[in-house]
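Researcher: We're reviewing a set of sequences before deciding which ones to prioritize for further study. For each one, I'd like a predicted 3D structure that I can look through quickly. This is CACNA1A protein. If possible, include the structure in token form so it fits the rest of the review sheet.
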Amino acid sequence: MDMAVHKKRLRKKLVALKVDSSGDIFIQLEWSRSQVSLIKVSSAGGRYWTYDTASSGQVHVLGGGNLQLDPSGDAIFTGYTGGSLNGTNNLGDIVVCKITSQGAESYILQTGTDASDTSTALAVDSSGNAYVAGTTTGSLPGFSASGGEDAIIIKVSASGSVLWNLQVGGSDHDRFNAMQLHASGYLFAAGSGALDGLPSAGGTDFLLCAVDAVAGTLVWAHQAGSSGLDQGAHYLRLDDAGDAYVAGTSGSHKCRTKRASKPKNQESESQKKALTRNLTKK
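Model: Here's the predicted structure for CACNA1A protein, in token form for your review sheet.
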């Protein structure tokens, strides 16, 4: 069967859209949760090219916001796969793909643990490095799983190699849903969780972390929320001063939090030491 005809019969979903400095549009589609397409369209509406993922398994895209443009105008997107892209086949891996502005594949990377991994957010710096946030039920190199799902960040170079991994979590489900880089060199990541060593308001809380974008080390972490089950932060914005603003869903109407890039020492020294022990690379 002709692939063009076959695709018309599949259910497609728009998952992300970006516009470059020339007004050209990058459109990311998902076909019946089995294939991802990236289409570049001119500002006048003409199609330049289409790129399709291809594997022996499936490539999925989880949520929007998983498409970014680097300073050269190349497109980087993430997803996850239960198949094999480069001879690797685990329960579920993270996929990072870079497509040049001309439509050529620069790299496609399959990475993660031997357990289940998914990607949830993506940020790109001025050098073209990609920061991929997600979740895992396994253990990234240098870390041990805390239980349930852990929140992770993987930094990928402009050429497609892993530069560092970071994994944080507690005994429940922890995840990052949004990320943003700041000129201070911090990478801010927001989501939900109940990290070991931090006080919890009950269940899972709003989670906000600052990470050294060069070294990949956790600078600080903060939790806040209600006594109910908070789904946590889904949106994150930084101002020029480096203060972070998060928005999301709480288990109670009595929940509000803001955290600055240089927070006051609200956690006790014993809590800081416990957090350091639990988040130190094994």
